[in-house]
Design goal:
- This protein is of the alpha+beta class.
- It contains 7 helices and 14 strands.
- The strands form 3 sheets. It has a 6-stranded antiparallel sheet with strand order 2-1-11-10-7-8, with no helix packed on it.
- β12 and β13 form a beta hairpin.
- The termini are far apart.
Length: about 280
């Protein structure tokens, strides 16, 4: 069986995932069996179940809700082949078939020793933009144009999943731990005192993969790859850098109000009073 994934306004080319005829799949914006490049999808968002009794979709307490043919889902709801399932701004449709179309976006790759050298260098010295530039050239020459362009957008401080189709694609085909290594995101929840490095790549590193230290305020900064993590860190008023696959507006909201409070028209990353340019301000 194939799962067709498309955008509500056809902003992206459809993608396809092959699914077993029986199984349970978590739909998520970060980690899950079905990971979507959609900043409005929660982590987790919904569960899709296939079995002898048919197809079921169930919302898992998502922020934006799950819909079948524009009817909101609460408990498990049966779904027919071809019916629209909407999660965030993504449309899912199940169809018969086993072969994924050739045009399906895929830049999956094993990590070669050469690429591992780039990643090791950036882990040890995240501020090394020269290595980022050479790494981007290597990715392009090796046949990975989306990951290469994403890395160049990081160097240009232009990584925004809400406005860039390429960032959305890159957040699907790469993993949060890779984006944490190459990322240069702005620190959120900070008052940016004198001497604050302001950005993830300028922080001090240690043995922890997704935590770095700010020498100015002597606090830890946590890399958040899901809205749940943002909400947890926000409730403790901790410093964060959010993954590029997450919406800045939604992150600002859940940081201040928690995961299950629905956003409203005030939900904008400048909305949080008392925190300066919370997620992603240009310097």
């Amino acid at each position: 069986m194939l799962l067709k994934i498309s955008h509500v306004d056809d902003a992206h080319e459809p993608r396809y995932i092959a699914l077993a005829d029986e199984g349970s799949y978590t739909i998520s914006g970060a980690a899950g069996e079905i990971r979507l490049a959609d900043s409005t999808v929660s982590s987790p968002h919904a569960r899709l179940t296939l079995g002898p009794g048919g197809i079921l979709i169930e919302d898992l307490g998502s922020m934006m809700g799950t819909y079948v043919d524009d009817e909101q889902v609460t408990g498990p709801v049966p779904v027919e082949l071809g019916q629209w399932i909407r999660v965030g701004e993504t449309i899912l449709q199940l169809t018969l078939g086993e072969r994924v179309p050739v045009a399906n976006l895929d830049e999956s790759r094993p990590i070669t020793p050469e690429e591992r050298t780039f990643l090791t260098t950036l882990r040890a010295n995240p501020a090394d933009d020269d290595t980022r530039a050479v790494y981007a050239d290597w990715l392009e020459a090796s046949g990975f144009p989306v990951a290469s362009r994403y890395l160049r957008l990081e160097l240009e401080d232009d990584v925004d999943v809400e406005t860039s189709e390429l960032v959305g694609k890159a957040s699907y085909i790469t993993k949060p731990d890779w984006r944490a290594v190459v990322g240069r995101g702005v620190i959120g929840g900070c008052d940016w005192r004198v001497g604050c490095p302001r950005r993830w790549h300028a922080l001090a590193v240690d043995a922890r993969e997704l935590v770095r230290s700010c020498r100015a305020c002597r606090r830890d900064v946590f890399y958040c790859a899901s809205y749940k993590e943002v909400a947890e860190r926000g409730s403790a008023k901790e410093l964060v850098v959010v993954d590029s696959g997450l919406s800045r507006a939604n992150c600002a909201h859940v940081y201040a109000h928690g995961l299950y409070e629905r956003p409203d028209e005030r939900c904008h990353w400048n909305y949080l009073q008392g925190v300066i340019d919370l997620f992603g301000s240009k310097e």
